[in-house]
Amino acid sequence: MKQLKGSEKQVAWAEDLRKDFLEKAEEYKSLLNKKNSEKTQGEKNHESSLQTQLGLQERGVSFEEKRENDNKLREKLGLVVGKEERKALPKEQRRAENKKLREAKKENEIEKVNQKIEQALNQDSAKAWIESRPR
Predict the structure, then answer these.
(1) Which of 12, 22, 114, 126 is most buried, most CB within 10 Å of its CB?
(2) Considering the entire predicted model, what is its pTM?
(3) Residues 6, 132: Cα–Cα separation, whole Å
(4) How many CB atoms lie within 10 A of CB 21?
């Protein structure tokens, strides 16, 4: 972790912000690794809140764009892409493909969190932490 630069007061504040960010990132990753069926509603809400606080929530992405992104990921994974084609799959195969898609999306999300953590560890400006804090 890089030493922060700035006034004594800025550095102290930024260190608190960085510590809080890193704790939230780890908490978010642990929630991602928990099966949805095992999460309480409170944990699901907290996960969504952490996603927003960490700057990971995609804003302004339409349902169609999300579906298109899912289909690109399905294609990359070698899964059946079309909605009608997926419906035609045997139930067990459809479930297995949906599970692979969920796992890949989770891995992508964890990778995004890890990138944010890496950026946080390499940020040396106290002022940048203060200016980018959640308000």
Answers:
(1) 126
(2) 0.85
(3) 15
(4) 21
